[in-house]
Write a structure and sequence with these properties.
Layout: E1 4-9, H1 16-30, E2 38-43, H2 49-56, E3 62-66, H3 83-88, E4 93-96, H4 99-103, H5 109-121, E5 125-130, H6 134-138, H7 142-153, E6 166-170, H8 184-201, E7 209-213, H9 218-225, E8 232-235, H10 242-249
Parallel strand pairs: 1-2, 1-8, 2-3, 3-4, 4-5, 5-6, 6-7, 7-8
Helix pairs in contact: 1-2, 1-10, 7-8, 9-10
Bound molecules: phosphoenolpyruvate.
Length: about 260
């Protein structure tokens, strides 16, 4: 069994000093209590990667990731970073297809498919984000949207991809940054559907981790990660503060202070 991933996406927040301080406070708050079956992933802005990695170096089961990259090693792509830059900054993971990249910055399925394949080829572990918009949910199109995003986004990768390398994050767009979390039944239904699709597509589809993201907080995290086919969480707002992120990291474990 692969470890559950407790990931914090810090989006376009925090100076280098703030990021370094939050990472340090997180490591201290979690202390020796990180359960063996979990890993912690911090996804800061590019500018703070070095500071965060300085804090995480030597910390067992802590990793960093990039929020984005361009599918090329180098070149005339002003404003972009490459997988090599991310690896050079100490990243093990990268996000592809986060809802803000899809819906604010206009990235489409074919481009995301290119990124997934390129990042994997360059030995980054890819967290591929998918999720429906509220109008798609209201029209009963959740499974249709998830199927399309998976089929298109993963079309360029071989069926024997290792479950270590690829992670899916189910993030309903209407639950991101809104304070509105999907209910347990909705999460289970979506994750079970994604699992079936992964088994159809990949030889090791039953082992690929599926994270939930969308207004995860310390007080709802234990219930969410306790669901079948939920192999961790991707957290935005509540990961910005070390106390709240540490309570998410430990949620439902023996040392969860709220139990
Ligand atoms: C995210 O940024 O992926 C996210 C889920 O944000 P939030 O936790 O703030 O909803």
């Amino acid at each position: 069994m692969l470890k559950k991933i407790m990931a914090g996406n810090w989006k376009m927040f925090k100076t280098r000093e703030e990021a370094s301080r939050t990472a340090r406070e997180l490591v201290v708050a979690v202390g020796e209590n990180l359960p063996d079956d979990r890993e912690v992933l911090i996804i800061p802005s590019f500018t703070a990667l070095k500071e965060v990695n300085d804090v995480l170096s030597g910390q067992k089961n802590y990793f960093s990731g990039g929020q984005n990259f361009y599918p090329a090693d180098e070149g005339a792509f002003t404003g972009e970073v490459s997988p090599l830059h991310l690896k050079d900054s100490g990243c093990s993971y990268a996000l592809v297809g986060h809802s803000e990249r899809r819906h604010v910055l206009g990235e489409e399925d074919d481009f995301l498919a290119e990124k997934v394949a390129y990042g994997l080829e360059r030995q980054l572990k890819i967290i591929f984000c998918i999720g429906e918009k509220i109008e798609e949910r209201k029209q009963d199109k959740v499974e249709e949207v998830l199927a399309r995003q998976l089929e298109k986004g993963l079309k360029n990768i071989i069926s024997s991809v290792s479950p270590h390398e690829l992670v899916i994050a189910y993030e309903p767009v209407w639950a991101i940054g809104t304070g509105e979390t999907a209910g347990s039944d909705d999460i289970s239904q979506a994750h079970n559907f994604i699992r079936k699709k992964l088994i159809d597509i990949f030889e090791y589809g039953s082992d690929i981790r599926i994270l939930y993201g969308g207004s995860v907080k310390p007080d709802n995290c234990a219930a969410i990660i306790g669901l079948d086919n939920v192999d961790g969480v991707l957290v935005g707002g509540a990961s910005l503060n070390a106390d709240s992120f540490s309570r998410i990291v430990l949620a439902g474990s023996k040392t969860d202070s709220s139990l």
